[in-house]
Design brief:
This protein is α/β, with parallel strands linked by helices. The protein contains 5 helices and 45 strands. The strands form 3 sheets. The chain has a 21-stranded parallel sheet that branches. Strands 1-5-9-13-17-21-25-28-31-34-37-41 form a 12-stranded parallel sheet. The chain is flat, with a radius of gyration of 36 Å.
């Protein structure tokens, strides 16, 4: 006989003594009948009952029928209570039998997982997965899942750590690798099933802490609710794929994980609600792609993440976290390539506060900033290249307050500022190059209030100032160059010299047409 999945979890069966139960049932039945009787009496407006000194045979027969009806109803009530109690006892007994059978099968499957033969272990994995599908309670299914995850957490050496001339070690590694990847495939296949499927594992917890992954496929998996924990996991080689995966309402943790030499793909992944935590994660060598992924609602955090010598791709990603946030605060970008081309930042806050850009290349080319609050406050641009070429800033807030440009090249060439508020308050331009060549300033506000220019080269060559308020109020010029060569507009930005007699700081070059303008704004 095949046991069907039974997911209602019964506590220890507790039944009251039959005597008190029947007493309570009869009292409840009489009370309900009385309430119904008096409600009908009141609704019908009855003034009293006509008394009879003698009754005929018909009335007597009706009284007899009423008596028998009361007795029959009482018997039916007793039978119903007894049947219900018997059903509870039978269900509890069936659950005990199913649990006992589950325990026997569980012991056998776990024994197979510990076998020296890889073939037996593979059989144990599928037996344990089938056992999880047939588990009579949610907790027993979670136990089966926990064992599969624990198997992955066992000590494991990646291929790069094996002796090159040891054929036996290589053979054992390949066999163990196949067993481990089978666990990953089994988990993925169950997470692909819709939540309405009785064999779906969505909503359960998965503990992958400190697991060593040398590849694996979680593509199209659906992580809905539950806790998915990759804390401290190591992705050392091969390809780990979360392509087309969906994270909806779950808590997914990659805190302090290490991506070293592997290729990780989150392409077209969807992050809705819940939380995705990459705090302290290290990306070194290898690559990671979030191309065209969607972040809407929930919390996505790369707090303190380290990107060094790696290719990270957020090309075409969509950040719309109206009910959450995306944070790269205190992240370190040193070497490698980080791509945000054609990404869209709309709604919700995106933080790069305190991030350090030292070496490598960071691209925001053609990115769209509309409605979101994107902050680079206290960020440090020390070397390498950061590009916002052809980016569009329309509505929302983009802030570089207290940021430091102390080396490398930062470019806003052909960027379009229309309707957004972009602030460089108290920003330090100490060295390196910052270019706004051919940028267009239409509507909105761009402020350099209190910015310090000492040693860097700022270039507004060919920029257009038409309708946007650009302000350099309280800016300090003590070195470097600020070049507006061939820039044009109706008036000079606020805070710059407005007449030929005004003091022009060394390194500041402005179009002659701006002298004598009202200087009331662009």
């Amino acid at each position: 006989m095949t046991l069907k999945p039974f997911h209602r979890q019964w506590p220890n069966l507790r039944l009251w003594p039959i005597g008190p139960v029947l007493t309570i049932a009869f009292v409840a039945a009489v009370s309900i009948a009385s309430i119904v009787f008096y409600a009908g009496w009141d609704l019908l407006g009855v003034q009293g009952i006509k008394s009879e000194k003698r009754i005929d045979s018909k009335t007597l027969f009706d009284l007899v029928k009423l008596s028998f009806g009361v007795v029959a109803g009482s018997g039916a009530l007793v039978a119903l209570i007894v049947a219900y109690r018997r059903q509870r006892v039978d269900e509890a007994g069936a659950l005990r039998d199913a649990t006992r059978l589950h325990t026997e099968r569980f012991t056998t499957a776990v024994g197979q997982l510990g076998d020296e033969s890889a073939a037996v272990r593979l059989g144990g994995i599928h037996a344990l997965a089938g056992l999880a599908d047939d588990a009579p309670t949610r907790s027993l299914r979670q136990t089966c899942i926990d064992v599969l995850c624990a198997y992955l957490r066992l000590p494991y050496r990646a291929e790069v750590d094996l002796p090159q001339d040891d054929a036996t070690a290589q053979h054992e590694y390949l066999a163990l690798r196949e067993v481990r990847h089978t666990v990953i495939r089994v988990v993925r296949d169950h997470l692909r099933l819709p939540q309405t499927n009785p064999h779906s594992w969505q909503g359960y917890d998965f503990d992958f802490t400190n697991v060593v992954f040398d590849g694996g496929d979680f593509s199209k998996a659906i992580f809905s609710s539950g806790i998915i924990d990759f804390t401290g996991a190591q992705f050392t080689s091969g390809e780990i794929s979360f392509r087309d995966a969906r994270f909806t309402g779950s808590s997914v943790k990659f805190s302090n994980a290490l991506f070293c030499g592997s290729s990780a793909s989150f392409e077209n992944a969807e992050f809705h609600d819940g939380s995705i935590i990459f705090d302290g994660v290290q990306f070194s060598n290898g690559s990671a792609s979030f191309e065209k992924s969607q972040f809407s609602g929930g919390q996505v955090s790369f707090l303190g993440a380290q990107f060094s010598g790696v290719l990270i791709n957020f090309y075409g990603a969509d950040f719309r976290c109206s009910r959450g946030s995306v944070s790269f605060a205190d992240a370190q970008f040193s070497g490698g390539w980080i791509h945000f081309e054609d990404a869209r930042f709309s709604e919700g806050p995106v933080h790069f506060d305190g991030a350090q850009f030292a070496g490598g290349r960071l691209y925001y080319d053609r990115a769209h900033f509309s409605g979101a609050t994107v902050s680079f406050n206290n960020a440090q641009f020390e070397s390498g290249n950061v590009s916002f070429d052809e980016a569009t800033f329309s509505s929302g807030w983009i802030t570089f307050d207290d940021a430091q440009f102390l080396g490398g090249e930062t470019s806003f060439s052909s960027a379009r500022f229309s309707g957004a508020t972009v602030n460089f308050r108290e920003t330090q331009f100490g060295s390196g190059q910052v270019s706004f060549e051919s940028a267009k300033f239409f509507e909105g506000i761009v402020g350099f209030g209190g910015a310090q220019f000492f040693g860097s080269s700022i270039d507004f060559f060919g920029a257009e100032f038409l309708g946007c308020e650009v302000s350099f109020v309280d800016a300090h010029f003590s070195g470097g160059t600020l070049d507006f060569d061939r820039a044009y507009g109706f008036a000079a930005p606020i805070g710059l010299p407005s007449t030929p007699e005004s003091f022009v700081p060394p390194g500041l070059r402005m179009p002659t047409a701006w002298f004598g303008s009202t200087n009331s704004g662009a």
